[in-house]
Specification:
Blueprint: H1 15-29, E1 38-42, E2 54-58, E3 72-73, E4 77-80, E5 83-86, H2 95-98, H3 112-127, E6 138-140, E7 146-148, H4 149-152, E8 177-179, H5 187-192, E9 197-205, E10 217-227, H6 229-233, H7 261-283, E11 289-296, E12 299-309, E13 312-322, H8 324-329, E14 336-343, H9 344-352, H10 365-368, E15 391-398, H11 406-417, E16 421-431, E17 438-446, H12 455-473, E18 476-477
Helix pairs in contact: 3-9, 11-12
Length: 479
């Protein structure tokens, strides 16, 4: 994983200090970026003593399936995008999930996820510029989804016993590597690379329930902005007397222990104004917005934004003031910042009226052609091209004494049934009064997005799910 060295010939550096900074930046970025050239634009502030405004061609790992071998899972290793990971007791990725890695729906031109990403990107480019008129925020949308467990959890201060680390909720390649569960896994590396303002988009992976709004692969967009003392207080009267940090402070619901209240309130104001402008740009200027206080391990204070849409309050993103320990670990000890994260599918489903999350993976031209628009801001509403009838089948089984989770069963259904499964609902749970054994009954709804299913083919899939559940989960059927 290296940066194309030819790209560095376009740099104009001033002084030995600048050359040293570039070497450090090159070393930091080489840990992040990948083997096929992709254009990226970076600018640095004048306060660094220089300006760089050139096109860098970062390597890219997320190429097409044609340029990477098919993923493989053997008894001893997992191979994906040309990388081999030894298997161990934490390995739980499946071939079905690995087949999605590298698809990059958010980078496919005219795909609805690409469209919503471009609208967000265009808004930030137009609204936030440097003194030179160049974009303040850089955009990164090709970082590899294979990350270390340390990147995904430890770098974000997520405790070792936090429930989000559970094997049942994530896709582990092995004990040390996994498919990222959120784009926040790259925050520390990008800040360490010297970036103070950036957007990050990518595919993320979580084991979850099955219905029209949940899928094991979805896409997030992340934003981070850091402020120096001068940048935050430049427009404040007597701002030179104010500081980002204080000694002997204490943590309160309003701030972290090392931050001054004045600094936190300004950062919080910047964050909320930035996100309010963004969602009104997407949904319309008359949009009602409300903020709900919440908790995240990597921000404090933390908030969720809800918008009033079609009569209901809808959660659209989470955000907050970055934990200073995270910022310090990335080498930006003299800065304070905010971060946010949003789901691209959630926004696209609402904005375009897409009723089922499985449609984003459709290759049907009746779906895709609807989003080939003259401009990214051209209005569009999804027009259903057909609604094929559902088929319902139930499955009941006794649970094993230990080691079973519902997500394990959902994963079997996804692996065997694929995208013909629309929804899985737990209908009933029963505990035998004498043996104390527990049984569960699920209803599986089968519906293909592009054709009518026959009961015969659904029965074959259903039987395969029953057999696989017995073999892999140790359940005992009650069919």
């Amino acid at each position: 994983m290296v940066i194309d060295n030819a790209a560095w010939r376009s740099f104009v550096c001033q002084g030995s200090a600048m050359r040293s900074y570039c070497r450090t930046l090159h070393k930091s970025l080489s840990c992040l970026l990948h083997p096929t050239a992709q254009r990226c634009l970076l600018t640095w502030p004048r306060s660094k003593g220089f300006v760089v405004y050139r096109k860098l061609y970062f390597s890219r790992q997320l190429s097409t399936h044609l340029s990477s071998p098919e993923p493989r899972i053997s008894d001893n290793f997992v191979e994906v995008l040309g990388h081999v990971y030894p298997r161990d007791d934490m390995t739980n990725v499946t071939s079905k999930i690995l087949s999605k890695v590298g698809r990059g729906l958010h980078n496919q031109v005219h795909h609805p996820l690409w469209l919503i990403k471009q609208r967000i990107k265009d808004h930030f480019y137009r609204s936030y510029t440097s003194r030179l008129g160049t974009p303040l925020f850089s955009v990164h949308d090709n970082l590899s989804p294979m990350v270390t467990v340390e990147q995904n959890f430890d770098s974000l201060l997520i405790p070792i016993d936090h429930p989000s680390r559970k094997k049942g909720d994530n896709y582990y390649l092995n004990r040390t590597h996994m498919l990222r569960a959120h784009t926040s896994a790259h925050q520390r590396e990008l800040v360490r690379a010297g970036l103070d303002a950036f957007l990050l988009a990518g595919d993320v992976y979580r084991r979850d329930e099955i219905d029209s709004s949940h899928y094991p692969v979805f896409h997030q967009m992340e934003g981070v902005r850091l402020f120096s003392n001068h940048e935050l207080f430049a427009h404040v009267e007597n701002g030179g007397d104010l500081s980002l940090f204080e000694r002997d402070g204490r943590r309160t619901p309003q701030k972290q222990e090392g931050h001054t209240l004045e600094a936190v309130k300004l950062v919080e104001l910047s964050l909320k104004q930035t996100l309010s402008h963004l969602v009104r740009h997407l949904f319309g200027e008359e949009l009602e917005i409300r903020w709900v206080e919440c908790y995240f391990p990597f921000t404090h204070p933390s908030f969720e934004m809800e918008v009033r849409f079609q009569g209901d309050w809808l959660e659209v993103l989470g955000c907050g003031v970055m934990e200073q320990e995270l910022v310090n670990s990335a080498g930006a000890e003299n800065k304070l910042g905010w971060a946010f994260g949003l789901g691209l599918e959630r926004l696209a489903m609402v904005l375009f009226g897409i009723p089922d999350i499985r449609l984003f993976w459709s290759q049907d031209e009746r779906f895709l052609q609807q989003f080939r628009l003259p401009t990214i801001h051209h209005p569009v509403t999804f027009q259903p091209f057909s609604k094929y009838p559902p088929l319902f089948n139930d499955i009941s089984f006794w649970l094993p004494a230990e080691g079973y989770t519902e997500n394990d069963f959902y994963e079997v259904v996804r692996t065997v049934g694929g995208d013909v499964v629309e929804k899985v609902t737990l209908l009933d749970q029963f505990t035998h009064p004498k043996t104390k054994k527990v049984s569960q009954c699920f209803r599986i709804v089968y519906r293909h997005m592009e054709r009518t299913l026959s009961q015969e083919e659904v029965s074959m899939v259903h039987q395969a799910i029953e057999q696989t559940a017995e073999q892999e989960l140790g359940v005992q059927g009650r069919y």
